[in-house]
């Protein structure tokens, strides 16, 4: 078995070259290159995780935006309906007010007209009295030949007309 | 015919020979000849360097090569995370170097490079090589253990739930099993590699001798041996991976003891 037969002759060389080459492997490959390879893997894993997180964040942002949009749309719709209702109520109120104003004007004019009618009737009555008194005076003068003075005739007519 | 036929020595493949006339190289009286073993360590290191360098493109979307390298570093990372936890991250360079060196040495030693005139040599079939790795792992365990826990590290030898009346026995057993670790690490790998190579060599000598003995023996012995050899080659590829994995796994388990005690 050369491993044992040659042991004492070769052990120094074996150990020396083993240490040399294993040292080279450890420092150049193990310490120099492996960390870079692993850093690449780590960077890739991190990028994948970051991309996934970004996608997730974008999705939730889109969801939130959609929700906000829906809330805003609802609010705007409610606002619009409130505006319409208010406009309707305002219009109804304004119409009512104008109707009321028109009514008072009409009432005033009716009252005024009634007043004028009453005045005209009074005037007419007065004229009738005057005419009746004159007529009565004339009738008396023509029938009885008595001259009745105007005031007496008027009083008599008034008495007859007004009961 | 039989006389000129060289005897197939299944152990010859493990012979260490100085190369390029470097057998007089020495440091402080120790011979450090550049041997075929050292040459194959160099080849393993180069192939490993090329392999990992090919995966260093750092693309966001990895290609096949980068994917292969990343799956191996990820495998070691997972192994350490599972066995040690978050503190295991700092051992990734060491365990990766260990695992990949053993794996590549095992696999390259199995390659049929003799077809191209090269004689593959498996450094991990020598316990003077696996011993270096085992002692390195064991030393790291000791250094980390005593640095992190001080003398409290000795509580490793008293498992939880040890009855008081066994306190004289259990720590002794634990101490022995602890001290055996570097030997079991080194010997397991060396024996597995050597056994596989010897088996392949023995079977191949069956195939060659039977074929030389004529068509009858070639058919009865040579052909089944050849089929068995092909299957054992597949098995050896598996063993090459498993032994590298076992070495890395046990080292990480021992490091777990040092990091977390129990």
TrEMBL record, chain A:
Keyword Transferase: no
Signal sequence annotation: none
UniProt membrane topology term: Single-pass membrane protein
Gene Ontology molecular-function annotations: proton-transporting ATP synthase activity, rotational mechanism; proton-transporting ATPase activity, rotational mechanism
Keywords: ATP synthesis, Cell membrane, CF(0), Coiled coil, Hydrogen ion transport, Ion transport, Membrane, Transmembrane, Transmembrane helix, Transport
Principal cellular location given in the protein's record: membrane
GO cellular component, one term: proton-transporting ATP synthase complex
UniProt subcellular location: Cell membrane; Endomembrane system
Keyword Acetylation: no
Coiled-coil regions, chain positions: 61-97
InterPro entries: ATP_synth_b/b'su_bac/chlpt, ATP_synthase_B_chain
Membrane-spanning segments: 15-34
Record note on quaternary structure: F-type ATPases have 2 components, F(1) - the catalytic core - and F(0) - the membrane proton channel. F(1) has five subunits: alpha(3), beta(3), gamma(1), delta(1), epsilon(1). F(0) has three main subunits: a(1), b(2) and c(10-14). The alpha and beta chains form an alternating ring which encloses part of the gamma chain. F(1) is attached to F(0) by a central stalk formed by the gamma and epsilon chains, while a peripheral stalk is formed by the delta and b chains.
PANTHER family, alphabetized: ATP SYNTHASE SUBUNIT B (PTHR33445:SF1), ATP SYNTHASE SUBUNIT B', CHLOROPLASTIC (PTHR33445)
Family: Belongs to the ATPase B chain family.
Function: Component of the F(0) channel, it forms part of the peripheral stalk, linking F(1) to F(0). The b'-subunit is a diverged and duplicated form of b found in plants and photosynthetic bacteria.
Name recorded for this polypeptide: ATP synthase subunit b
Automatic annotation (TrEMBL), chain B:
Keyword GTP-binding: no
Keywords noted in UniProt: ATP synthesis, Cell membrane, CF(0), Hydrogen ion transport, Ion transport, Membrane, Transmembrane, Transmembrane helix, Transport
Pfam assignment, any one: ATP-synt_A
Spans through the membrane: 38-56, 91-115, 127-147, 153-173, 185-206, 226-255
Membrane-related topology note: Multi-pass membrane protein
GO cellular component: plasma membrane; proton-transporting ATP synthase complex
Location of the protein in the cell: Cell membrane; Membrane
CDD domains reported for this sequence: ATP-synt_Fo_a_6 (cd00310)
Superkingdom of origin organism: Bacteria
GO MF, one example: proton-transporting ATP synthase activity, rotational mechanism
Function, in words: Key component of the proton channel; it plays a direct role in the translocation of protons across the membrane.
Annotated family: Belongs to the ATPase A chain family.
Name used for this protein in its record: ATP synthase subunit a
Encoding gene, per UniProt annotation: atpB
């Amino acid at each position: 078995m050369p491993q044992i037969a040659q042991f004492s002759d070769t052990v120094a060389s074996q150990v020396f070259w083993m240490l040399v080459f294993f040292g080279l492997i450890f420092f150049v490959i193990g310490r120099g290159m492996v960390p870079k390879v692993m850093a690449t893997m780590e960077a890739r894993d991190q990028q994948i995780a970051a991309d996934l997180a970004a996608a997730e964040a974008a999705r939730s942002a889109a969801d939130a935006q959609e929700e906000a949009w829906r809330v805003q749309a609802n609010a705007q719709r409610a606002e619009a309906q409130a505006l319409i209702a208010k406009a309707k109520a305002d219009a109804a109120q304004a119409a009512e007010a104008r109707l009321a104003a028109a009514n008072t004007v009409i009432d005033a004019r009716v009252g005024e007209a009634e007043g004028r009618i009453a005045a005209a009737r009074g005037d007419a009555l007065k004229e009738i009295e005057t005419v009746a008194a004159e007529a009565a005076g004339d009738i008396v003068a023509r029938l009885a030949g008595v001259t009745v003075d105007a005031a007496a005739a008027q009083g008599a007519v008034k008495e007859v007309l007004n009961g | 015919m039989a006389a000129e036929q060289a005897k197939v020595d299944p152990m010859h493949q493990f012979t260490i020979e100085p190369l390029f006339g470097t057998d007089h190289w020495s440091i402080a009286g120790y011979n450090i000849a550049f041997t075929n073993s050292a040459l194959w360590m160099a080849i393993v290191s180069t192939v490993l360097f090329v392999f990992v360098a090919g995966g260093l493109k750092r693309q966001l979307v990895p290609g096949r090569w980068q994917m292969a390298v990343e799956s191996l570093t990820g495998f070691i990372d997972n192994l350490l995370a599972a066995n040690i936890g978050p503190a295991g991250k700092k051992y990734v360079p060491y365990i990766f170097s260990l695992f990949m060196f053993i794996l590549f040495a095992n696999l390259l030693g199995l390659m049929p490079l003799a077809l191209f005139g090269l004689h593959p040599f498996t450094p991990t079939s020598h316990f003077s090589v696996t011993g270096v790795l085992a002692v390195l792992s064991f030393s790291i365990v000791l250094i980390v253990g005593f640095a992190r826990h001080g003398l409290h590290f000795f509580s490793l030898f008293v498992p939880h739930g040890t009855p008081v009346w066994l306190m004289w026995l259990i720590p002794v057993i634990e101490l022995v099993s602890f001290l055996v670790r570097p030997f079991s690490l080194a010997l397991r790998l060396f024996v597995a590699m050597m056994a596989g190579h010897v088996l392949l060599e023995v079977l191949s000598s069956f195939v060659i001798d039977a074929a030389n003995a004529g068509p009858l023996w070639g058919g009865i012995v040579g052909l089944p041996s050849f089929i068995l050899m092909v299957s054992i080659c597949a098995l050896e590829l598996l063993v090459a991976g498993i032994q590298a994995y076992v070495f890395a796994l046990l080292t990480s388990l021992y490091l777990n003891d040092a990091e977390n005690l129990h």
